[in-house]
Design a protein that fits this description.
globular, single chain, 7-stranded mixed beta sheet, 60s Ribosomal Protein L30, Chain: A, 6-stranded mixed beta sheet, 312 residues
């Protein structure tokens, strides 16, 4: 849909829309919800809320209001739902975001998330297109949450790797976005269900550029590589590889397990930013001062035979 006030719609594949209200003021609108990915109801609620608000941060905005979206079985105890909502409420408070209502329906499987409204200066919107040759690609969270949470459901992992994955998903992208706004970047997105490759593919195709990166440069959650070598990978991860893998220029030495890792469907992943070479070190310093583990994982070049080229 074309509209003079609609600054970002569906054309770029961004996960949120931006609508200009007046000079200097625009709103960001997004929604996300999903079934439990961890056993603890509180942590599920917190992770889902952090995931829901992430699109606002990825576009350079500040969250303002949220509406809860809840699906819940009639035969489940209400204290479970209360803990889910408590987790979401705690994250909302951390984000200085008001929960102002919501909607609940009966469903056979629990699901939870939020519709979030944020604010942004129309002149400072960060979309997932706009990367230019020479940009450095910076990622702010390790990947592997899809593989680890799938292993958790299967009962083949627990302890420290799970705790680290939960902590990563639970962490807001607020500080990363603050560093991004301070420095200024050319494009950004958050890494969620389409995996690192899927979201990077959107960025490169929309920018008519090519990303060059190596598997070794991409940070992984502890245990993720071992699990995928054991054959653990969610259906969404395998679907991502089937869908976008053919559009990637894989070096012949990239293992099948690494292809799955690069396509792993993430929940509440980090920000992926394309920043000019002369600002890259500044961005890394700003992230470090906020205790955000930013890392350069690749470089942007002019368009080539594939939008992404990946080496071992």
């Amino acid at each position: 849909m074309q509209h003079p006030q609609l600054l970002v719609g569906i054309d770029t594949g961004d996960d949120a829309a931006v609508y200009k209200l007046a000079d200097g003021l625009a709103i960001i609108q997004t929604i996300d919800f999903f079934p439990p990915i961890v056993d603890d109801p509180y942590q599920f609620g917190a992770i889902s809320a952090a995931n829901s608000v992430s699109d606002v941060y990825a576009m350079g905005g500040t969250p303002l209001l949220a509406l809860n979206v809840v699906c819940f079985p009639e035969d489940q105890p209400m204290h479970v739902l209360a803990r889910i909502l408590e987790g979401g409420a705690d994250v909302a408070r951390e984000a200085d975001m008001l929960i102002v209502g919501g909607h609940t329906i009966k469903d056979r499987e629990p699901k939870y998330g939020m519709s979030v409204t944020g604010l942004v200066d129309p002149e400072k919107v960060v979309a997932n297109v706009g990367a230019v040759p020479g940009d450095r690609l910076v990622l702010t969270k390790p990947i592997g949450t899809g593989i680890i949470t799938t292993a958790l459901k299967a009962g083949v992992i627990d302890g420290a790797p799970v705790d680290a994955a939960v902590a990563s998903m639970r962490r807001l992208n607020r500080d990363a976005a603050d560093a991004m706004r301070t420095v200024g970047v050319n494009a950004a997105t958050d890494v969620t269900g389409f995996g690192l490759v899927g979201h990077l593919l959107r960025m490169m195709e929309g920018s008519q550029t090519t990303a060059h990166l190596s598997v070794a440069s991409v940070p992984l959650l502890d245990g993720a590589r071992d699990l995928v070598e054991q054959g653990v990978a969610p259906g969404g991860t395998r679907a991502n590889l089937d869908t976008v893998g053919a559009r990637v220029g894989w070096h012949p030495d990239v293992a099948d397990e690494d292809k799955l890792l690069m396509c792993d469907a993430q929940t509440s992943g980090g920000l992926l930013m394309a920043v000019s070479e002369d600002k890259a070190d500044h961005l890394l310093r700003e992230l470090a001062t906020r205790d955000v583990p930013g890392k350069v994982i690749g470089v942007v070049a002019g368009g080539g035979s594939s939008p992404i080229q990946i080496t071992p």
